[in-house]
């Protein structure tokens, strides 16, 4: 997988068929609501969501990482990401993949807004 882009949320396909599919903004909003319980910060803003793929059949795949391979709440975060996306209209299946490459780095992967809030820029 390549390095995460500034916006890891890929465009979703145009709505097809009778059931409405979620928009890119709805997916981003659902994922932004999931927070790291130790830091109380959004996984999206922390840069922990590396990518999202979505197909017209309602299958969503989320690639994410953790702040550390030893993160004690890793399985909880994966479960919360899964549940947040599954609640969206038209989503029938969610796969959350934990990836370690590239390694997460707060200074390069967190959103500019979060870095400003933390005084990093």
Task: Describe the 3D structure.
The chain is an alpha+beta fold and 121 residues long. The protein has a single domain (24-110), classed as Fe-S cluster assembly (FSCA) (GMP Synthetase, Chain A, domain 3). The chain has five helices and five strands; from the N terminus they run H-E-E-H-E-E-H-E-H-H. The strands form two sheets. It has a three-stranded mixed beta sheet with strand order 3-4-5. Strands 1-2 form a two-stranded antiparallel ribbon. The longest helix has 13 residues, at 74-86. The model is unreliable at 1-7 and 14-18 (pLDDT under 50).
Q: Which terms would index this structure?
A:
alpha+beta; GMP Synthetase, Chain A, domain 3; 5 strands; 121 residues; two-stranded antiparallel ribbon; single chain
Q: Please tally the helical runs, counting DSSP H or I stretches of 4 or more residues.
A: 5
Shape: globular
Mean pLDDT: 84
Which regions have little confidence, pLDDT < 50, spanning 5+ residues? Answer: 1-7, 14-18
Quantity of strands, as a count: 5
Q: Assign the CATH architecture.
A: 2-Layer Sandwich
| Main sheet summary | 3 strands, mixed
> How many structural domains can be distinguished in the coordinates?
1
Specify Rg, calculated over alpha carbons. 14 Å
Biggest sheet strand order reads 3-4-5
Let me know the CATH homologous superfamily.
Fe-S cluster assembly (FSCA)
The fraction of residues assigned to DSSP E strands is 15-25%
CATH level 3 topology: GMP Synthetase, Chain A, domain 3
Ends: how far apart? 28 Å
Return the structural class.
Answer: alpha+beta
